[in-house]
Design goal:
By secondary structure, the protein is mostly helical. The chain has a domain of 163 residues: TonB (TolA/TonB C-terminal domain). It is built from 12 helices and 7 strands. Strands 3-2-7 form a 3-stranded antiparallel β-sheet, with helices on both faces. The chain has a two-stranded antiparallel sheet with strand order 1-4. A two-stranded antiparallel sheet has the order 5-6. It is globular.
Length: 325
């Protein structure tokens, strides 16, 4: 399977910052709402080279039934762009939740002269993705509520879905499971276990690409753990690595991809805020000012609550400590 995960469509979260779960709908159920579908344009090069198969996409559907592509699950690189363009033209009957229009997330399969086996594999993959991410997000939200029983149950379910490791198949989901286990162990104050899970997640991502956003996210979780343990040198090292990677991707996507820029910019500001607190704790005034200036540079990518909390403090730090340097 050709796999290309677009991590910038995933929400970057940290244990102390809340997030909202997506309402996930099974692919077969979502298909019943499909009002208009547009067949993809078969790329000429793919036709000439007799490349066939399916492209699996995770999509979000807004309250009016308009889809947007969140990430590519798998599909041959020569087929991916055509699949994305086609799906963007689809139209769904709006979904409802508690009698009101709702945003949902689901998976779709776009075939390109696919045979029966390829389509069956695609359907199985969509079902796996739905079940895995439903369990993962349920675990995340339960952790946010301070519940430790449900996350353990949901992560056990996710682990069973993953099964034994097999090459590079589902490596990204496996790394996410490790990260979630790290969060659960952190909540339980089992810090040594949490550190091992986070390190394993970092290794999975680094083995694939040391400079990927997935690697940056895994490093961020590890740095957060070290900060909580007051292992400031380790926290600083991992956080700086993460910020460096995020800044490269932030610069690379530029304004042409506002969604990616938003995620990267928020991660940079959040990590810099954590680093500023570490530097203040250790009386490193010049470094605290430096980190706060980064927070201010990227403040527009923060949520309103974070802006209200981070920005005034950083402005005071830059104004107060900056005068001493």
């Amino acid at each position: 399977m050709w796999r290309t995960f677009l991590f910038f469509f995933l929400v970057i979260s940290f244990p102390t910052w809340a997030q909202t779960a997506n309402t996930r709908v099974l692919p077969d159920e979502a298909e019943k709402h499909l009002l208009k579908s547009v067949a993809p344009v078969y790329p000429p090069l793919a036709q000439v080279t007799r490349i066939s198969g399916v492209v699996i996409l995770e999509i979000g559907i807004d309250e009016s039934g308009i889809p947007s592509v969140r990430r590519i699950i798998y599909g041959h690189p020569l087929l991916q762009s055509a699949a994305i363009i086609a799906v963007r033209s689809w139209k769904y009957r709006p979904f409802e939740e508690d009698g009101k229009p709702a945003k949902i997330v689901t998976f779709v399969m776009v075939p390109f002269a696919a045979n029966r086996t390829q389509e069956d594999e695609g359907r199985n993959e969509m079902l796996f993705q739905h079940n895995f991410w439903s369990a993962e997000e349920s675990a995340e939200m339960a952790l946010r509520r301070g519940d430790e029983t449900e996350p353990a149950q949901q992560l056990s379910r996710a682990s069973a879905l993953l099964g034994p490791a097999s090459g590079r198949l589902h490596e990204d989901e496996r790394a996410q499971w490790m990260t979630d286990m790290g969060e659960l162990c952190t909540a339980q104050r089992k810090y040594d276990d949490a550190e091992e899970y986070y390190k394993k997640a970092v290794k999975v991502h680094e083995d694939a690409d040391k400079e990927s956003p997935g690697t940056a996210s895994a490093l961020a979780y590890l740095s957060q753990l070290y900060a909580e343990e007051k292992k400031y040198d380790l926290a600083r090292m991992q956080a700086n690595k993460s910020v460096s990677i995020y800044k490269k991707h932030f610069k690379a996507v530029g304004s042409k991809n506002s969604g990616a820029q938003q995620v990267y910019g928020a991660a940079i500001a959040q990590l810099s805020w954590m680093l500023s607190k570490i530097e203040i704790e250790q009386n490193n005034h010049s470094e605290a000012v430096k980190q706060c200036r980064t927070v201010l540079d990227f403040q527009k990518f923060l949520g309103q609550a974070e802006q209200n909390s981070f920005v005034p403090t950083c402005q005071q730090t830059v104004s107060g400590l900056g005068d001493k340097n």
